[in-house]
Amino acid sequence: MTKIKNGLFVVATPIGNLGDMSARAQEILTTVDKIACEDTRVTGKLLSRFSINPPMIVYHDHNASKVRPVLLADLKQGVTIALVSDAGTPAISDPGYKLIQACIKYNISLTVLPGANAALTGLVQSGLPTDRFFFQGYLPVKSGARLSELEELSGVPATLIFYENGKRLAKSLSAMASVLGDRHAAVARELTKLHEEVRRGLLSGLAAEYCEAGAPKGEIVVVVSPPELPPPPD
Fold it and tell me: Can you give the pLDDT at residue 85?
């Protein structure tokens, strides 16, 4: 196997379908000295599937400030480390970007391996405009903060992309319809998995559907169309 250079490798992993694990990702994960991951149980299952077994270290939102200096110390000494998330591309809605910033600051070699990403997969699946988009991630849990954040987004001239969980989905869709207007939208669930589902329609209709059906299972991406442009002056 080819010897890899020292540094941090940011490695995208499948968001559901193991067939999306690239040969390059497998090679890097097999070769590095350590793998930094959000949850060793989740990553352990993936690594076991491909017979990969470097030691793992937990790195997530709650311990990032303590673990990041440890990872940086290793990297400065020539240890090779791969950064992965539970699924998809690291540093999207997780503390990975702070480790990347630190590597840039200390001139530590950084290599990013592209791959699966739920937000972009949902965007393409939605059929909504892709020429300009804004990734929001998760909205605040509290209703007041959620409405305020949506108010800020209401004038963004781009397709909006959100992450959401099943329990909050109906309320979030209703809030979006109320603040953003009844725009076209898509709710993509369990992307690339066996029970993949994409529902398209107006925000109000989707909110009513999920309110009646109850909270769906799985990871969810909500994509909302841009605001309508005012008619040109006559």
Answer: 95
d(CA 9, CA 156): 33
- Tokens representing 121? 């997969």
Strand ranges in the chain using DSSP code E only, listed in sequence order:
8-11, 34-37, 56-58, 81-83, 110-113, 133-138, 159-164, 184-189, 197-202, 220-224
**What is the pTM assigned to this prediction?**
0.91
Place of tokens 């540094």: 7
H/E segment holding residue 228:
none
Q: What's the rounded Cα separation, in Å, for the pair 3 and 126?
A: 41
Cα gap 81→4, rounded to integer Å: 11
Query: So what's the pLDDT on residue 93?
Result: 78
User: Which pair of structure tokens corresponds to residue 4?
Assistant: 């890899």
Express each pLDDT in 111-126 by its tens digit. Answer: 999 999 999 999 999 9
Q: 180 CB contacts (<8 Å, ≥6 apart)?
A: 150, 153, 154, 160, 203, 224, 227
CA distance 195 to 210: 17
Q: CA separation (Å) from 60 to 38, 86, 91? A: 5, 10, 10
The β-bridge partners of 13 are 88
Rg of the chain's alpha carbons, rounded to an integer?
A: 20
Rounded to whole angstroms, the Cα distance separating 213 from 160 reads 24
Cα 48 to Cα 26, 43, 44, distances in angstroms: 11, 8, 6
